[in-house]
Amino acid sequence: MDEVLFSGPLSVQKNSSTAEYICELAKKPEFFELKLYNQATFTIMLSKLNESEYYTIKETQSIRVNYMSFIATLSELLKRVQRKELFIEVGSTIKIIERNTFRNILHLELPLKNLTESEYKMYISEILSKLNRKTSALERENSILKEELMSARRANDDMTQRYREELEKLESTTNRSRREAGDLEMKVNSLKKITDESALEIDRLKKENRILEDDLKKANDIIKRNFEDLKGRIKSETLLKEETRNYKQEKEDIEAINSRLEMEVMEKNEEIKILKELEEERAEAINNLKIMNKSLNRKLESTYRIYNRIYKKHDETEEDSKTEETTSSLIAPESIQY
Questions:
Q1: What tens digit of pLDDT does each residue of 78-94 get?
Q2: Which range of residues forms the domain containing residue 87?
Q3: In this predicted model, which residue has the larger pLDDT, 210 or 125?
Q4: What is the SS3 string spanning the chain?
Q5: What is the CATH number of the domain that holds 36?
């Protein structure tokens, strides 16, 4: 199936003259075909290349793309010719040239195929069939345009009639408007008076508005200051909350320490109670020892008196003193270990 890659009018230079040709680039199953034809003179120029022929040209013209890429590139070159960026010259070959102030740069040169009479007739018949199809399409479009023109004319006549009727109505309306204009002029004069009064009222309102604007600015300043104060208070409250949390933590720590100290106090109280009981027992033991000491002293005194009567009557006074000293030194409450 043929695939048309480019189709459109191009300016072609041939024999030092320029004419407009219809250019068509078509990709066929086994080759591609570049066709240029002039509808005025029925001149046809044709270039055909298959893949093997292309690679021959590729070597001679130092082309760097493959066969498939070449066809797409050729389509882009033809579009550049259409935009007047490149030019086509036709002699014995088809040349695509880029012109600058220094020289002409040859982008591509394609061989032309000599058409036989049968091929020429075939291509002419194709061109004529395309022209016939275009002519039929143009005739259909022309008939549609004629119908649209007739309907437009009828619509124009209707609009003209309506315009005339509206013009008559407008004239009568104009006369009525003139009469109303006098009334309006009187109303305008009264409105001018009202306008002057309104202007005075507007001036008064402007003054009041300026006063209100000043008050509003002051209120905004107060709001800003209050907002700053509020921000400071919020910040202070945040700090207080943080300190409160810290105090609560410290309180919990102190309560824990207090509980521990209370336990220690209770333990110490128990120890004191035990020590008091021991002290009472010690005091009771001391009292018992004192009583025993007194009893022993009395017994010793009795014994010494008996001894002195029997064995040492002449030293009674000295022996009594010695006995007291000996007794006090032998049994002294302070020397007893508890």
A1: 999 999 999 999 988 99
A2: 3-115
A3: 210
A4: CCEEEEEEEEEEEECCEEEEEEEEEEECCCEEEEEEEECCCCEEEEEEEEHHHHHHHHHHHCCCCCHHHHHHHHHHHHHHHHCCCCEEEECCEEEEEEECCCCEEEEEEEECCCCCHHHHHHHHHHHHHHHHHHHHHHHHHHHHHHHHHHHHHHHHHHHHHHHHHHHHHHHHHHHHHHHHHHHHHHHHHHHHHHHHHHHHHHHHHHHHHHHHHHHHHHHHHHHHHHHHHHHHHHHHHHHHHHHHHHHHHHHHHHHHHHHHHHHHHHHHHHHHHHHHHHHHHHHHHHHHHHHHHHHHHHHHHHHHHHHHHHHCCCCHHHHHHHHHHHHHHHCCHHHCCC
A5: 2.170.210.20
Q: Which residues pair with 94 in a beta bridge?
A: 90, 110
Number of domains, the chain:
1
| 96 bridge partner residues | 88, 108
In a domain, residue 104? The reply is yes
